[in-house]
Structure formats: C-alpha cells, structure tokens
Specification:
This protein has one domain. With 416 residues, it is mainly α. The chain is built from 16 helices and no strands.
C-alpha cells in the first residue's frame, strides 16, 4: 500500500511540475510547448493504470465528441487518399485522442491544476516581455515571439489568460488579487497591440468586455462594453501600429470590393484582402466535396488546381489554409466534420455556461466564447501542433477544475 501511495505522490508531483512549466518554458523556448505536452501525455498514459475518478455525464459527452472529431479527420483522409502529408498531419490530430488520458490525469489530481494556473500567470507576463523585446530591442516591425508567429503569440496569450481567472478567488488578499488582475490585463493588451495581429485586436476587444463583465457582474455588461469601446478608440487614435494596420486593412478590403474581376491574376491584393480568395477556395472545395471534404493537408494542392483552371485568384493558393477555422474544417472535412466541430464548440460553451461553480464556470465560458470568436479568422488553434496543444491543455484544465469542484474537491484539501 505504501508503494502505491508513493507512486501516486510521485506522479502528482511530476504532473504539477510539468503543468507549471508548460506556459512558462513553452513561452520561452522554441518547441518546448510540444515537448512538455508530450511529457504530460506520457504521464497521463501512466496514470491509466491507476483508479479513475467517477466522471459526470457531461464530461463523458465531451470526451466522446473529441473522439468523434478525430474519427472524422481519419475517415476524411482515408476517403481522399492517405499520403505523406496525412501522415504528417496525424502527428497533430492524435492530440485529440491524447486529450482523454490527459483529462483523466487532471481529474485524478485536481490540485495540480493550481500549478498550471500559476504558470499561466507567468506565461502571460513572459509573452508581454517578449513583445517588448521584439519591438524595442530587436527593432522588429511587429512582435513575433519565439515561434515567429504574431498570431500564435497574441491568441495564445489571450487563451492562457483564461487559466488565470479561476485562481483569483483562492487569493485572499485584495491587494495581491487586484495586482495580478492588472498585470494580466496590461500584459494581454501589450502583447496583442505589439503583435499587430488584426484578428487579435478584435479578440482583445471581446476578451476585455468579458473580463470587465466578470469583474463587475453581468449587470455591468453595457458599461463594460462602452468602456472597452472607448479604450479601443483611444488606442486606435494614439497607437501608431494599431492605427496603421487597421487603416491598411480597411483600404485593402475597399480595394478588393471595388475590383470587378476578382479572379484576375494580374491584380495583386494586400494581406487582408487576400483572405477573400482564400475563403473562396475553401467554398469551391466544399462545393465539389460536400460530405467529407478534401482531407486534412490538401487545401493548398486543391487551391492551386482551381487557380490553374481560372476559377480562383492565384492568391487563394499561397497559404496552406483559408485563414478561418470554420472554413478550414468545412473544406478539409466537409459537412460531417463541420457538424461535429460546431457541435463540440457549442457543447463546450453550453457545458461551462450551465456550470454552477461560479468563477470557474465563468472562466470556462469566457474561454469557449473566445475560441468560437477567434475561429472566424484563425484556424491555427486546430491545425498547428503547438497551438492545438495549448488549446487542449487550457480546455482540460478549465473543464477538470470545474467538475472537480462540483464533485466535492476543495482547493484547500491536502488529500489526494
């Protein structure tokens, strides 16, 4: 019995350390997000031989939907022909399956989630520091972060920040709690602004409204919205990078809409307007492959074929994805995959919205709304390994925390 308890203790400590390091080292050293995610999953596989907590029916439905989404990916790839590209993509998709033992691990040791939350506070702060370093030390035009992706830097920081909310009630001293809130909000604003990601600008506005509403109560939603809009306007008129990139986006969209022949290969569109031919490519693929789509990883190949036939502007084939999570799933996995994907996102939002664990449930709901909104403009969360690892860790942490609390777990308990 002693050996068994010792094993539990060692596994709990190893899990806590790895979860704490995930947002810290993952935001500091290239590739460590995937390495640490792999390590956490290995620990979770080892945990499968231990007794499991009794899951709520809502948890079982969540796990079932995740498995169903992975199944759709597999069938779509098999229907469209399996090749080297699909083998490469499988390394990303398998993370959905690994979510199951990962979730069971966190439910078995809910106290380790606190360390993930603490690490998230540091991770958000590190992201802001990287942004300032990129701009003011390296002299870059935008903050790129260690992964050289402004979108990953900004969206990842916003996603991480949701993990910091449930820990706030555990901080009894008002000064310390309010200081952490200020650090988180300022760090998010700095990171998003310096990233220059216009999608992240929109996500930040929505996220600030959610944060203010959570802090002041939903009765203060109108005031929170008004305050955020005023803040956004002040930043737009006084921060050069926001003003320049927003103005450029408006001009590029206006130019695209004013162009009569939008498939004319001789006409070049700016980076914002390029999203229109990218979206057009996804729609064409869905038109021709409505049930199972074209398969994961086949977007660019199919887009080039449409461009060669003159159905699509060549700019619609310059990226490996259509710059929209929903259109990416629609093109790659068809009606079946899109239906499961929308069901999963909707279910996660409902699961948190109907939760009764106060701040923990509201944090999960805020996270789910953030993901639903950002998926309109960015598919990175679901197609790139580092981003998907972050998404699944945050989802597992917030979900396991909510249901652990609802099953009687107390954060002040010292029991296993």
């Amino acid at each position: 019995m002693t050996n068994g308890m010792g094993t539990y203790s060692h596994l709990r400590v190893a899990t806590a350390i790895t979860l704490f390091l995930f947002p810290l080292a993952g935001n500091s050293v290239t590739g460590w997000s995937s390495y640490l995610f792999t390590l956490i999953c290995l620990l979770s596989l080892f945990n499968l031989s231990h007794p499991k907590p009794k899951l709520d029916h809502r948890e079982r439905k969540l796990l079932a939907l995740v498995v169903l989404l992975f199944t759709c990916f597999m069938i779509s790839n098999l229907v469209n022909g399996w090749g080297p590209k699909q083998t490469s993509e499988l390394g990303v998709e398998v993370r959905y399956i690994l979510f199951i033992p990962l979730y069971l691990l966190l439910r078995s040791y809910p106290q380790t989630i606190i360390w993930l939350m603490l690490g998230a506070i540091g991770g958000v702060f590190i992201a802001a520091g990287q942004s300032l370093y990129d701009i003011y030390t390296l002299g870059l035009d935008r903050a790129y972060g260690i992964y050289k992706s402004p979108g990953f830097l900004a969206m990842g920081t916003l996603m991480l920040s949701t993990l910091t909310i449930p820990i706030l009630p555990l901080i009894k001293k008002p000064l310390a709690r309010n200081s952490i809130i200020v650090i988180i909000v300022i760090s998010c604003i700095i990171t998003v602004i310096l990233s220059g990601s216009r999608s992240a600008y929109l996500a930040l506005i929505g996220w600030l409204i959610i944060l203010l509403a959570l802090h002041f109560g939903w009765r203060g939603f109108v005031s929170a919205t008004l305050g955020t809009v005023i803040l956004g306007w002040i930043l737009f008129t006084n921060v050069d990078i926001i003003h320049e990139r927003s103005e450029t986006a408006v001009n590029e969209i206006a130019e695209y809409l004013a162009t009569e022949d939008k498939s004319d290969a001789e006409h070049y569109f700016g980076s914002t307007a390029q999203r229109f031919p990218l979206w057009h490519a996804a729609i064409l693929m869905y038109r021709d492959n409505p049930v199972w789509g074209v398969g994961r990883g086949n977007y660019n190949r199919n887009a080039k074929l449409y461009a060669q036939r003159g159905e699509l502007h060549p700019l619609g084939a310059i990226h490996p994805h259509p710059h929209s999570g929903y259109l990416e799933i629609m093109a790659s996995n068809g009606t079946v995959g899109l239906t499961v994907f929308l069901t999963l996102l909707g279910y996660i939002a409902w699961m948190f919205r109907t939760g009764t664990q106060g701040v923990a449930s509201l944090a999960g709901w805020a996270f789910s709304l953030l993901v639903i909104f950002t998926a309109l403009f960015e598919p990175c969360t679901f197609i790139y390994g580092n981003f998907l690892a972050l998404y699944l860790i945050v989802l597992a942490g917030l979900s396991a925390w909510q249901f652990s609390l609802s099953s009687g777990y107390s954060p002040t308990s010292t029991d296993r």
